[in-house]
Specification:
The protein is an alpha/beta fold. The chain contains 11 helices and 8 strands. The chain has 2 domains: 225 residues, Spore Coat Polysaccharide Biosynthesis Protein SpsA, Chain A (Alpha-Beta Complex); 70 residues. α9 packs antiparallel against α10.
């Protein structure tokens, strides 16, 4: 039996690019159907992440125009990761496989053919991985590649140069539904589920229209969330560094006592001020990192919903 595919696409203020890329997504679904790789019940599922422009109206118009398109609208902006999760959880009972991809047209949709082929070969998760970053500036390329290296060094299992372009089977999604974290970092959480996985490689293009909604500040925030959500190594580093500082301080105390006994002490405030500032700075940084973990524990214990779906286009169709 041919698998039912749902292409899950998070959208936030995408009124400029959505009319362009929606045509490409529709053509890709029809192409995969014609090649006999997927069922003719396959869909494109847009997730409106509380957009403030006409994105949701465009999605509703698309769903009225073609049965290929469906859409859900979140009650408010919940962020990219929650929007992707909402689409995956919505689709898991409606399809056999999902492919999540951004709306901007930068990810090569032709890689979907190979992703589906890999699924048919028996793989449950297929990661879309950038083969090169020639279109990026040196700064963006350096920070992005450093991000993946730091994440792996910190103990977060992530696929190098993989974002959120991936195929996931229904079987994996059903198991992933048992993960109830509020602090989401999907590219680090999906590998935790396990199952047979592989990667396909593609070249990333320039954004077709509109502006990126993921500046450096959001990338840094995502990286920090990923590290603190999936690893306790920062706290262990603090512990190790604290032991080192304590050891050096103890040596300094012994040195001061010996100097005092032999009468070699020199009055001065500069060295003392430097030591106090250094230790105080270490303490504040340590408290900040520990506080980040405590804050995440606080949010997790509240067990608030990660997203709320306000509207569905297919409810309107069926009504």
């Amino acid at each position: 039996m041919k698998p039912v595919l749902y292409i899950v696409i998070p959208c936030y203020n995408e009124q400029e690019v959505l009319p362009i890329t929606s045509v490409q997504f529709e053509e890709k679904v029809h192409s995969l159907i014609e090649k006999g790789k997927i069922s003719d019940k396959s869909k494109v599922l847009f997730v409106n992440d509380g957009s403030k422009d006409k994105t949701w109206n465009i999605i509703k118009d698309l769903s009225e125009r073609s049965d290929v398109f469906e859409g859900i609208c979140l009650s408010r902006n919940r962020g990219h990761q929650n929007a992707v999760l909402a689409g995956l959880m919505e689709a898991k009972d409606l399809c056999d496989i999902t492919i999540s991809i951004d709306c901007d047209g930068q990810d090569d949709i032709n890689a979907m053919d190979e992703m589906v082929d890999k699924y048919l070969e028996g793989y449950e998760v297929v990661y879309g991985v950038r083969s090169k970053r020639d279109t990026d500036t040196f700064f963006k390329r350096f920070t992005a590649e450093s991000f993946y290296k730091i994440m792996n060094f910190m103990g977060a299992e992530v696929v190098f140069n993989h974002a959120d372009y991936r195929l996931i089977s229904k079987r994996v999604l059903q198991e992933f539904a048992n993960f109830h974290e509020v602090n989401l970092f999907l590219r680090g959480m999906i590998p935790l589920v396990g199952f047979k996985s592989t990667s396909v490689y593609y070249e990333r293009h320039e954004r077709l229209a509109g502006q990126s909604h993921y500046p450096l500040s959001k990338m840094l925030s995502l990286a920090f969330d990923g590290i603190t959500s999936l690893s306790v190594k920062p706290i262990r580093f603090i512990t190790g560094f604290g032991v080192l500082v304590a050891l050096l301080s103890f040596i300094g105390v012994l040195y001061s006592l010996i100097s005092k006994l032999f009468g070699h002490t020199v009055d001065g405030w500069a060295s003392m001020t430097c030591i106090l500032c250094f230790v105080s700075g270490v303490q504040l940084i340590s408290l900040g990192v520990i506080g980040e973990y405590v804050g995440k524990i606080y949010l997790e214990t509240k067990q608030r919903p990660r997203f709320i779906i306000a509207e569905r286009t297919y409810q309107e169709k069926n009504s």
